[in-house]
Amino acid sequence: MKNSINSFLVNSFEYENYPCICKKETVYSTPNEEPRYIVKLCRNTSVSPLKFSYSAQSGLNLSGNAGGIIEENILGKLLAIPTNDLDATIKFIEQYGFIKPISDSEYESIDSAALLAFFERIKSTIRLMSSIAGKKNYTSIFISLSYLLFSNTVMIDTSKGIFSTVEHSFSSLLKSFTNMPDIQRNQELFDNGFISIKDVVKQKQVKIERDELIGMVSGNGIANLPGSTDPLFKNLFALYTNYHSEDENLHLIIDFYMNFQREIGIIKAVEPRKIKYYKKEAVDYSDNLKNAMLKVAEIVISDEINGNIIGIHPSYTYGSLSPSWKLSSFLEALYFSIFYMQPGVELYKECENPGCKRNKYFLIKSTRQDKKYCCPQCANAAAQRRSRQRKLEN
User: Most C-beta atoms within 10 A of its C-beta, which of 42, 162, 362, 367?
Assistant: First the structure.
């Protein structure tokens, strides 16, 4: 029975989508302030639909009517879109279609910030999957992980419905939980001058001293800990010291971020490719932090993928009597492609040719991390560049 299930799961999937007609509209709201942009989208049904399929080694592909691959590595092309580059994002949508069903008779109006946030979450999920494969890049893992957990939930309203990014339990609690321990009625604090916390990262009871509790409860923060008055850190401290849950995954994430920020530095801002700290106290991660980070990364990847493929269901194809998957959106096709990636086995790597115009990000086995270029042409171009540089230096 197990073998037949595995055989069914590894079958590739197919999905049809229409390219889009896109217009960028500039909105000037207030004098002396930067404008915002609205993207007008409409499905272009005057052309044939695009056929997408998944295959091992090359990921999500654009296929022909006969099933042959026309264009490989669609996920890699999405990953190559520069961070928050609206024009490049629009170009991708014009070429491959929108991530959700939209009208083909009138323009849909979508705020550019929400649109970019959706694409950044997809890219962060792919980067996170790649970062935990093979040789671990803990800094990259933490950046992608934190972007997925700390960025705000985004909603897009279309004529076909409202859809949103995945909101993790930790994320919603981090923004809302403010209940600090009651320092007036805590018997342990009265008797001993501290409270005990079961820390799953350190795997022991941790003491939170009276001075720290009073500082955090009063809003003054912790002495000699820059950023400890930050609103999100205060909420995290409240979660760490006063939130009780049977959810082991949630407990791990809370304890991980508290330990990380106490050891490395308190987070000031999270961007798709960068973390800003109030003051970075350390650069090396302890083994406890590394082990916990990998576990948290697996939890977050699972939640992101499961939350975005929840609408997919298996079906049996009439005529060919073969199993297939029923997908309702291009977004599901993108995340299903990530779902099919083998965690710890496959990863997306950036081509080391600065002028790469082919597959800037390409899928490889984690055991082939010595492969620097996406293709022989890029390898030759890089070799020629090095040769010219040596001649100039001589």
Answer: 362
Q: Which two tokens stand for residue 319?
A: 């005529």
253-312 pLDDT per residue, tens: 999 999 999 999 999 999 999 999 999 988 889 999 999 999 999 999 999 999 999 988
CA–CA separation, 297 and 291 (whole Å) = 10
Residue 368 DSSP label: G
- What's this model's pTM, rounded to 2 decimal places? 0.89
Query: Which letter does DSSP use for residue 284 in this model?
Result: S
Cβ burial 306-329 (10 Å sphere, 16+ → b, else e): eebbeebeeeeeeeeeeeebebeb
The torsion angles phi and psi of 128, rounded to 5 degrees, stand at -65, -45
**Three-state DSSP class for 146?**
helix
For residue range 133-147, list pLDDT tens digits in order: 877 889 999 999 999
Name the H helices within the chain. Answer: 2-9, 74-79, 86-96, 112-131, 138-150, 169-176, 187-192, 210-218, 231-242, 248-263, 287-308, 330-340, 376-393
Q: Give 310-332 as a DSSP string.
A: TT-EEEEETTTTEEEEE---HHH
Place of tokens 């939640």: 303
For residue range 94-115, list pLDDT tens digits in order.
999 999 999 999 999 999 999 9
